[in-house]
Amino acid sequence: MGFFSRPTAPAVVKPAKISLATAAARTFIHRFHVPGYDRGTIHTFGNTHRVETPLDADPGRLHQGLDQAERAVRSGANEGTRLYAAIADVLTHLLNHADPRNPWVPIVVTDGMDNQSRVTDFDTQWKDKQQLVPNARFAGEMIAQGLTAMRSVGIVCQPIVVGVGGDRQIDAVAIGALGQAGGFPTFHISGFDQLADLLTAEVTRLVVTDRLVGHRVGNLKVVTAHQTARVHRFPVEYAIVMDRSGSMNAAE
Fold it and tell me: Which three-class secondary structure state does DSSP give residue 127?
């Protein structure tokens, strides 16, 4: 019996958060995006903002952008989290490239609070935990000014910000202050396994209510087939803005 030893169980390798995040984004695209009708764009942010895929009606191009986002994180660049500036950057991108006749929904996903943004004439320590809530509120106010300017020229834009992780990674009060000051919904969820369902439900809710297209579409018809809601609506221009900071290369 001494010649035999009990086999060692193989170690369980947990997927990196970026892999879980891109998988959730793919599921959302599959559920929501009508090929040739809606247009999406894939962005990432770390120390800088980057467009991985410009606005495109082909979901396949969006999946390529998600592949690029995952490779960027897996390369081990270990970047920071430029969250607040990324929201402003994606709004600027949509202003330059999106169709103003259609509603815009930028979706921002992060696993941590901002530690890289800089705002002109606003001298603060973004890494100071005592300043998390005031900084978030200030950033929200700045973003709200941009959204108000869009509305003044008839553009309907509704950002969504999702913080994923435990209390050590995401300050729920701060991310709530960001949305309250900015006038857009923010969410704090504990794991990426909840992300696809949240995005599908929230974006669909926005699209089928008066907030986005009720004044243009009139009566909306929802047909349920194969557990997926198909909504008869105007095209949506959306952006998936993914955190590519170093922490996204770790497991949950």
Answer: coil
pLDDT tens column, 55-68 = 999 999 999 999 99
The CATH code of the domain that includes 143 is 3.40.50.410
How large is the greatest C-alpha to C-alpha distance in the chain, in angstroms? Answer: 82
Range of the domain at 91: 17-249
Residue carrying the six token digits 């100071």: 128
Which two structure tokens, joined as six digits, stand for 94?
Answer: 């949509």
Please state the domain count of the chain. Answer: 1
**What tokens does 234 get?**
């105007």
Single out the residue of 57, 59, 20, 43 nearest to residue 94, CA to CA.
Answer: 43
Query: Model's pTM, two decimal places?
Result: 0.84
Q: How many CB atoms lie within 10 A of CB 112?
A: 20
Instruction: In whole angstroms, give the CA distance from residue 3 to residue 157.
Output: 69
Q: Which of 131, 35, 22, 10 is nearest to 66 (CA)?
A: 22
168 in a structural domain: yes
Gap between the Cα atoms of 92 and 173, Å rounded: 27
| pLDDT tens string 194-217 | 999 999 999 988 877 544 443 333
The answer to whether position 161 is within a domain reads yes
**Would you say residue 4 lies in a domain?**
no
Could you give the angle at the alpha carbon of 66 between the alpha carbons of 63 and 69, nearest 5°?
160
DSSP state of 211: I
